[in-house]
Amino acid sequence: MITLVNIELFKIFRKWRTYIGFLAIAVIVGLIQLGMYYEGQGAVNQMTRSIQQSFVFVGNLLNGYFISYIILGSLYVHMPFLITLVAGDLLAGEATAGTYRLLVTRPVTRFSIVTSKFIAGSIYTAVLVLFLAAVSLGFGMLIFGSGELIVANPGNVVIFSRDDVMWRFLAAYGCAILSMLVVTSLAFFLSSLVENSIGPIITTMAIIIVLLAITALNLDFFKPAIPYFFTSHTNIWHRFFTDPIDYNEIINSALVLLAHIFGFYGLALYIFHKKDILS
């Protein structure tokens, strides 16, 4: 299995589309950091406007932690598209290239083929999120320094001390990986249905947009189903920046996300196992 995963990773990282995500993240993060360098103090002032008359703020609130928090929240809506560019091609790309028959005639099971591709796609997703963490948090700390983290939650503003921040970011990026693995598994499942990667990419994004739209409508008809939408739990990372942290909500969201991940993977495995490969 390890050999198969290495082969799939090689196939992923030799394609130019794989690096679109890394390039896009580097450019967008750089632009955000440039903008915050010149205009960031205004964002801090806006967050603290309601309590400036009661408190005096000292120290460096416009720091790498604050910038990284802003970036994590603003890029989260764009990350799924970058992931589907690769995940949607994992199985459909083989059909497009006409290499399905070659795959299944190798001395490995279909289970191994599907699982190795899924693991490779998951590794790519994790690397992409970790790259976001390295670029935003690493360069943010280098350019803006460290300090306390100010977070505006609904109804209150919370300021975390600098020695109480890094573990929250590590946990947040870990949960971000879990959330994005749902996107990977959905695109992977759709990739098993078709023979062209364009379909899974567009359909994955369409599903995400529809679910977000249904949630935003907040209609009574859809309310019983909304807690089971994976899009209702992709902001799990944000819960590590509340005080106190509701670990029950985090566990519940993690279980919903894991159920979607294994569910989509299981469907892809079943479809590929039953697929009548003619070319």
Question: What would a concise description of this structure say?
Answer:
This protein is mainly alpha-helical. The chain has 10 helices and 2 strands; from the N terminus they run αααααααββααα. Helix content is 66%, strand content 4%.
Written description of the protein model:
The model has no long low-confidence stretch (mean pLDDT 83). The protein starts with a helix and ends in a 5-residue tail after the last helix. The chain has helices spanning 2-13, 18-48, 64-75, 79-87, 92-97, 100-104, 110-144, 166-191, 198-217, 247-274, and strands at residues 149-153, 156-160. It has one domain (2-273). A two-stranded antiparallel ribbon has the order 1-2. The protein has ten helices and two strands; from the N terminus they run H-H-H-H-H-H-H-E-E-H-H-H. By secondary structure, the chain is mainly α. A hairpin with a 2-residue loop joins strand 1 and strand 2 (156-160).
From the structure above, extract its key features.
10 helices; 4% strand; mainly alpha; two-stranded antiparallel ribbon
